[in-house]
C-alpha cells in the first residue's frame, strides 16, 4: 500500500523506533527517589528540546496526549478562565477549523458560551478582516482560534494579521499548529499567540503525545485536576519517554524542513499539474500553502467511492481529515469553500513518499475517477 495520507499520521522515524526499542524503563517522574529523578531529568530535557524547536520557553510547554487534548485545554481553559474572572465573552472561530476545535467550541456553546463564526474564501483561507471585526463587535471576545494552515486544503492562514488584531483587542489567540509542525517554520514567541497546539504523530513521533504551548502570562483553567503537575494546567503522571521521542522527532523535522519542503512541493506540483488535466477535476489550492498537500475535487463522483477505488488500487488517500472516528461525512471545509456535490480528494505526502509512488498514483487516478463517476 502506498501512503498518501501523511497529514493524518506519518510513520515513526527510524531513529525514534530505535530510541524506543533501546529505552530503559522509567519510573514516575514525580517520585522523589533516584529512579524518579532520573525519569524527571529525561522529561525536562525533552521539554527543553521541544521548547527550542518551537521557539518557546521550557516552562511554556505543557505536555498532553495529543492535538485534540491540547486544543480542548486551550479553548475550554481560556474561556473558563475568562468566565471565572467575570469576563465571559465570545469565542471567535473560523468555520473551516479542524473538528477538534469545532466540537470543543460546540460543547462550550451548549454551556452558554457565545460564538462568533468567521468565514473563509474559496481556498479555505480565513478572512482576517472579519476576524478583526469579530474580536470587538458586540463586546470584547474571550478567546480567538485559528489554524496555522488548513489541514485539508493546505492553505496557510493569515496568522500575522489575526495576531496583530487580537493583540490590539486584548484577546488571547490560540493557534492550531498540529498540521503545520515540521512543514513550515514555527516560532511561538514570534507569532504573538497566547496558546499553540502541536502533536507528535504528524512528524514521525509516537502517537498519543502532544503539547500545548502556553504563554507565561496567559490565563488558563485546567481540564482535569490531580497532582498539580505542569503549572497545575495538566495534572497526571507525565510520559517522560513519549516526550523524549517527540523531541527527537521534532528536532529531526526542523533540521530537514527546508530540503524536505522543497522535495515535497515538487512532488505535489507534479500531482496538481496532472490532476488538472483530467476533465472535471478542480484544484482547491492556493498560495502560500503547505508543501505536502495536494487537494482536488472531482465533479460528478462520490468521495467515498473514489477513496475506495484508490484504496483497492493500492493507494491510501483521504477525502477529509481523519477526525471522525472512521465515520464518513461531507467535508465541512469543502462546503465552507462554496462547493457541494463533489468528491474531495486530499493527497498528503511525507518523507517516505517517492517519485515512483507519485507516478504510480497518477497512472491509477484517471481510471479511478472514471469508475467513481460511473458508480454515482
Would you mind describing this structure in some detail?
InterPro entries: Aminotrans_V_dom, Cysteine_dSase, PyrdxlP-dep_Trfase, PyrdxlP-dep_Trfase_major, PyrdxlP-dep_Trfase_small. This protein is of the alpha/beta class and 376 residues long. It has two domains: 2-9 and 257-375, Aspartate Aminotransferase, domain 1; 14-255, Aspartate Aminotransferase, domain 2 (3-Layer(aba) Sandwich), CATH 3.40.640.10. Helices cover 41% and strands 14% of the residues. The strands form three sheets. It has a seven-stranded mixed sheet with strand order 2-8-7-6-5-3-4, sandwiched between helices. The protein has a three-stranded antiparallel sheet with strand order 9-10-12. Helix 9 runs parallel beside helix 12. The radius of gyration is 21 Å and the shape is globular. The model has no long low-confidence stretch (mean pLDDT 96).
Indicate the radius of gyration in whole angstroms.
21 Å
Q: Biggest sheet: strands side by side, in what order?
A: 2-8-7-6-5-3-4
What is the H-and-E element order? EHHEHEHEHEHEHEEHHEEHEHEH
CATH superfamily heading of the largest domain: Type I PLP-dependent aspartate aminotransferase-like (Major domain)
Give the total of beta strands.
Answer: 12
Q: What is the terminal separation in angstroms? A: 26 Å
Domain Aminotransferase class V: 4-361
InterPro entries: Aminotrans_V_dom (IPR000192), Cysteine_dSase (IPR016454), PyrdxlP-dep_Trfase (IPR015424), PyrdxlP-dep_Trfase_major (IPR015421), PyrdxlP-dep_Trfase_small (IPR015422)
Catalytic activity: (sulfur carrier)-H + L-cysteine = (sulfur carrier)-SH + L-alanine
Pfam families: Aminotran_5
Amino acid at each position: 500500500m502506498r501512503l498518501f495520507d501523511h497529514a493524518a499520521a506519518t510513520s515513526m522515524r527510524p531513529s525514534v523506533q530505535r530510541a524506543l526499542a533501546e529505552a530503559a524503563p522509567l519510573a514516575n517522574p514525580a517520585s522523589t527517589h533516584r529512579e524518579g529523578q532520573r525519569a524527571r531529568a529525561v522529561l525536562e530535557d525533552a521539554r527543553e528540546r521541544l521548547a527550542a524547536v518551537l521557539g518557546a520557553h521550557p516552562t511554556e510547554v505543557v505536555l498532553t496526549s495529543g492535538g485534540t487534548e491540547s486544543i480542548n485545554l486551550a479553548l475550554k481553559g481560556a474561556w473558563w478562565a475568562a468566565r471565572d474572572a467575570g469576563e465571559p465573552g465570545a469565542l471567535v472561530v473560523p468555520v473551516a477549523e479542524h473538528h477538534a476545535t469545532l466540537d470543543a467550541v460546540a460543547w462550550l456553546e451548549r454551556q452558554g458560551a457565545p460564538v462568533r463564526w468567521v468565514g473563509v474564501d474559496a481556498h479555505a483561507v480565513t478572512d482576517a478582516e472579519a476576524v478583526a471585526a469579530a474580536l470587538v463587535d458586540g463586546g470584547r471576545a474571550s478567546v480567538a482560534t485559528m489554524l496555522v494552515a488548513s489541514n485539508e486544503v493546505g492553505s496557510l492562514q493569515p496568522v500575522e494579521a489575526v495576531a496583530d488584531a487580537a493583540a490590539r483587542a486584548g484577546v488571547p489567540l490560540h493557534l492550531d499548529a498540529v498540521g503545520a509542525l515540521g512543514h513550515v517554520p514555527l516560532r511561538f514567541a514570534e507569532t504573538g499567540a497566547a496558546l499553540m497546539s502541536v502533536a507528535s504523530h504528524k512528524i514521525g513521533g509516537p502517537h498519543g503525545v502532544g503539547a500545548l504551548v502556553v504563554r507565561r502570562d496567559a490565563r488558563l483553567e485546567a481540564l482535569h485536576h490531580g497532582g498539580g503537575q505542569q503549572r497545575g494546567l495538566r495534572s497526571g503522571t507525565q510520559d517522560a519517554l513519549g516526550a523524549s521521542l517527540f523531541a527527537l522527532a521534532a528536532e529531526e523535522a526542523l533540521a530537514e524542513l527546508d530540503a524536505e519542503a522543497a522535495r515535497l512541493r515538487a512532488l505535489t506540483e507534479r500531482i496538481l499539474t496532472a490532476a488538472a488535466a483530467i476533465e472535471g477535476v478542480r484544484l482547491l489550492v492556493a498560495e502560500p500553502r503547505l508543501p505536502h498537500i495536494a487537494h482536488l475535487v472531482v465533479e460528478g463522483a462520490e468521495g467515498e467511492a473514489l477513496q475506495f477505488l484508490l484504496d483497492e488500487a493500492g493507494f491510501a488517500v483521504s477525502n477529509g481529515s481523519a477526525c471522525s472516528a472512521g465515520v464518513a461525512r461531507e467535508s465541512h471545509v469543502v462546503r465552507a469553500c462554496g462547493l457541494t456535490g463533489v468528491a474531495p480528494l486530499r493527497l498528503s505526502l511525507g518523507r517516505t513518499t517517492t517519485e515512483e509512488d507519485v507516478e504510480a498514483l497518477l497512472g491509477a487516478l484517471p481510471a479511478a475517477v472514471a469508475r467513481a463517476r460511473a458508480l454515482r
